[in-house]
Amino acid sequence: MTLYKNFSFEITHQSSTSRARTGCLMTPHGPLETPAFIFCATKAAIKGATPQQMKEAGTQIILSNTYHLMLQPGGSLVEKMGGLHKFMGWDGPMLTDSGGFQIFSLGHGSVASEIKGKRFGGRRKTLSKISEEGAMFKSYLDGSEHLLTPEKSIEVQRQLGADLIVVLDECTPFHVDKKYTERSMHLSHRWALRSLEEFKRGDTGRQALYGIVQGGVYPDLRREAAQFVSDQDFFGHAVGGSLGATKDQMHEVVETTMSFLAPERPVHLLGIGGVRDIFNGARHGIDTFDCVHPTRLARHGGALVRADYWYEKGLISGKEHITLSNAQFKEDARPIDETCTCHTCQNFSRAYLYHLLKARELLAVQALTIHNVFYMNRLLKAVRQAIMNESLSCEEKLWIAQE
Amino acid sequence: MTLYKNFSFEITHQSSTSRARTGCLMTPHGPLETPAFIFCATKAAIKGATPQQMKEAGTQIILSNTYHLMLQPGGSLVEKMGGLHKFMGWDGPMLTDSGGFQIFSLGHGSVASEIKGKRFGGRRKTLSKISEEGAMFKSYLDGSEHLLTPEKSIEVQRQLGADLIVVLDECTPFHVDKKYTERSMHLSHRWALRSLEEFKRGDTGRQALYGIVQGGVYPDLRREAAQFVSDQDFFGHAVGGSLGATKDQMHEVVETTMSFLAPERPVHLLGIGGVRDIFNGARHGIDTFDCVHPTRLARHGGALVRADYWYEKGLISGKEHITLSNAQFKEDARPIDETCTCHTCQNFSRAYLYHLLKARELLAVQALTIHNVFYMNRLLKAVRQAIMNESLSCEEKLWIAQE
């Protein structure tokens, strides 16, 4: 049986000056123009938007988290309900992760909590034990113990039925030494082979498997990991593991890793979705990105803005978002962005959004989510166009205020 | 200057067997087919739905509360932003209340808190003092003291700019005696005359004023109040004040009050919106209803269901709603209502809604709000059709399971 016969990845334009490319990734639920942003429907729902609103805001693809769904409502219930697409009413391309990230990031402590000196981010440690077999963890719902193995992860992802699925790996934290990173990488490689075997065993032709490139911040390990995944029958690759402690280091790790990967397969950058990070990733050939940032930001009153916002104020640099609960917006009759054609910018003023946030109205979250989702889809469309026009650096200045 | 020249109310069908009628109420923001349900956008936002979603769910008209908006963001800010229609992105018919209800209901304590023995519903008393001039009250936001007079209420409602506006009255609680009710009614009548005078003084032709029929549960007082409002230049009438302590008493008070009102003007029933109450109201000639129930119910996991739901279970009676967080829905692949064409019923199963509620996902509120709004609009459409067909009692059996 031929693997991935219902999938394809075509590079539609390859930049002559960088690794940047545009592509078309075909799935059983339709095509995906790349580079693309994948929105996080963590528990089988986008926080603050219906599938219809996501579509209207230009969304091509979403993801759900296997960790959350395997605990509730459970993979077999979702399967019984006809799979995740039907369960949540999303008929476009979809990705699920392996479930490992939540277990390990909460277990090891995240980069953010590391910096803040909180080893577990103030939350209960979920990881109990890593063994050759898999990872023992405690449910965030009731503390019950579960074992996640590479085979189990594939099994649950098969029940969920997303188009793109991912092998289980150990997400190594950034503060460990090279030796730990190397050992961990080799464990992840053995898990990847088991994942692939389980994938092939139950393959229905409706899913495509991504291998993960580990290796932390170490170029020689990244090279070895890149070679490993390229040698296996994966449909695509995901850049994972520790990407460093700073944005600059992350951009460097992405660049290094991408230089080791052959260009044929699509590459996903796990959990990264800042505007600057997307320009950097796209420049080095990343095809898909995911991050909770746009929708989480909305829940905190933040709206993504383009560079114009700062240039109009006479500034030459500025953040990627504004916070609408700021008193300066109280009587501001303009939309978030006058050039934006999203439902929110077409109907609501900054003053109204300020009012909604002050009044703690649910609609504030919906309105800001719709804007941020639309913004990201508009951004990625602009990135694709700019790659075709060889004008990525020029385009970047429209989105990030910079000297 | 002719009052209400941009408004009209045409009775399109008058039942030959009851006071029930269908009508068309024309406003500067379009027509309203009656009987109609008015949804509560308390603080200039429907909790859980965008204006677009409200329109898609068949909504004709919404209301906002003057009490909340005068305190935040304030009438003059809304006016500066182009009025409430523009501010909140709603271009259909709209009503505002006088602001009195919140002051008095929180001040006196509601019927519900009365029954539960909580005089102020566990909340801070807002009413400070009623005088001939108006009502002194404390802001729910910061405790600051404000005076709401009939003139002030009209002024704020003019700044907000809704199509249909309402005179300030004292909302008498149901536990007071007849003497108090009569005194209160006469105060409300003097306030109504002042409201009307202020309305005429600043009339722009873009608003129509409703007078309120007071009189509590006493038929002779209701008759006097009905005569009073009919003698004044109101565009429409609203049935207010105490409607009694039970549903049956309320239905009786509505029937009695309606028997005293001439049929020419549209009549609104304040704050009532149960399914049974709507059939009762429509039967006695009520043209519009409002209630927070459908949207509030959604926030508590409740979905309105038709009688079929119970009949299919072999039951001959049942509640007007089901609660989707009930374990019986965990693996139920059916929509809330198989005959419902709302976005929620077309896309989501009971099992998915159960999951969303268990996972505390925002989408649960949106999905249930959309269903309940659609349900109410569908109900009122069915009521209008049934009035035209003289089949209201028959229609009622489809919506309320009953012997």
* CATH-scheme architecture of the largest domain in chain A: Alpha-Beta Barrel
> How many structural domains in the coordinates of chain A?
2
Oligomer, anyone? homodimer
CATH topology of the largest domain in chain A: TIM Barrel
| Average residue-wise pLDDT of chain A | 93
Helix content of chain A: 40-55%
What's the CATH first level of the largest domain in chain A? Alpha Beta
What's the CATH superfamily of the largest domain in chain A, by name? Queuine tRNA-ribosyltransferase-like
What Rg of chain A, in angstroms, do the CA atoms define? 21 Å
Total helices of chain A: the number is 17
Based on secondary structure, the structural category of chain A is alpha/beta
Q: How far apart are the first and last residues' alpha carbons of chain A, in Å?
A: 54 Å
Low-confidence blocks of residues of chain A: 109-123
Biggest interface between chains:
A-B, 41 and 41 residues
Major sheet attributes of chain A: 8 strands, parallel
- SS elements, strand count of chain A: 16
What is the general shape of chain A? globular
Question: Approximately what portion of the residues of chain A adopt beta-strand conformation?
Answer: 15-25%
Strand order of the largest sheet of chain A: 6-5-4-14-13-12-11-10
What features would you describe in this structure?
2 copies of one chain form a homodimer. By secondary structure, chain A is an alpha/beta fold. Chain A is 42% helix and 17% strand. The first copy, chain A, is built from 17 helices and 16 strands. In chain A, the strands form 4 sheets. An 8-stranded parallel beta sheet of chain A has the order 6-5-4-14-13-12-11-10. A 3-stranded antiparallel beta sheet of chain A has the order 1-2-3. A 3-stranded antiparallel beta sheet of chain A has the order 7-8-9. In chain A, strand 10 (164-166), helix 8 (178-201) and strand 11 (208-213) form a beta-alpha-beta unit. The termini of chain A are far apart. At the A-B interface, helix 15 and helix 16 of A face helix 15 and helix 16 of B.
